[in-house]
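User: Could you go from structure to sequence for me? I need the amino acid at each position, not a summary. Structure tokens:
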């Protein structure tokens, strides 16, 4: 679970493993804003960001499809929730998005 909603592991028709995030937008204004955000995210390309593969915005439910990353969430690695913590240098490198 993250700020958007529940996260599931899924597979595309070609067998590619993906992360599927399901969430809700409450208002029409929120839906328009979300679509703009999704379109912008799909254009971002950075080695420190998980790629947005696609999205669906039917009614108030929103579904985001991201590339699947092994080894847990960034949050788990930042706060040591059962995974090795990232060093300060690794955290700085990620936050710089360089």
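Assistant: Here is the amino acid at each position, in order:
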């Amino acid at each position: 679970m993250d700020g958007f909603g529940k996260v599931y592991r899924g597979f595309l028709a070609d067998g590619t493993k993906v992360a599927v995030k399901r969430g809700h937008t409450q208002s029409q204004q929120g839906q328009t804003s979300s679509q703009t955000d999704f379109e912008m995210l799909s254009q971002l390309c950075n080695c420190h960001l998980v790629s947005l593969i696609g999205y669906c915005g039917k009614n108030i439910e929103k579904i985001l499809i991201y590339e699947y990353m092994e080894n847990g969430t960034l949050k788990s690695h930042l706060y040591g929730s059962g995974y090795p913590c990232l060093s300060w240098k690794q955290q700085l490198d990620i936050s710089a998005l360089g």
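One structural detail worth keeping in mind: The chain is about 30% helix and 25% strand.
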